[in-house]
Amino acid sequence: MYFSTLLAFIAFFTASVVFGQVGTHCGTTADATFSDCQALVDPGTWNSVWAADTNVCHYRNPDAGDSAPAYNTACHGNCCVYFASKTGRKPDREQTRRDAIGLFGCADVSVNKINAMVFTEQAYGVCISNGNGCGDCFDDQDFSGGCSTC
């Protein structure tokens, strides 16, 4: 009985370490203005400012190795949405917008601030930050592991 309980605990702990990074992470980067982010993801604004993969920035993740490219895909006011992939995938306009909207649960509406990142099982991340978020969004273990396709 004791041995099986110990094995279950080890299995649970190992799974949480390996897969804990997949999902939404609130508070990972510099604050953006939430109302600017709400305006940014309006389809009209989003489509007019969409930069796709033309605005390249770089981040360095000590857990993942050398520096890697990320993209500042869209900005409005004090809100930018960043995209990075572990497999060379390029940002998709509508999927990135939906991923950004999915981060709105991390907002602190009482102070009109948000900062968050989602790391997907498809080995890419989307982050909401201010205009200085490229390195800060993807530079820690929230983005460095946990997906089976990486």
TrEMBL record:
The protein's name in its UniProt record? Secreted protein
Cite the entry's keywords alphabetically.
Answer: Signal
What is the top-level taxon of the source organism?
Eukaryota
Q: Signal peptide location in the record?
A: 1-20
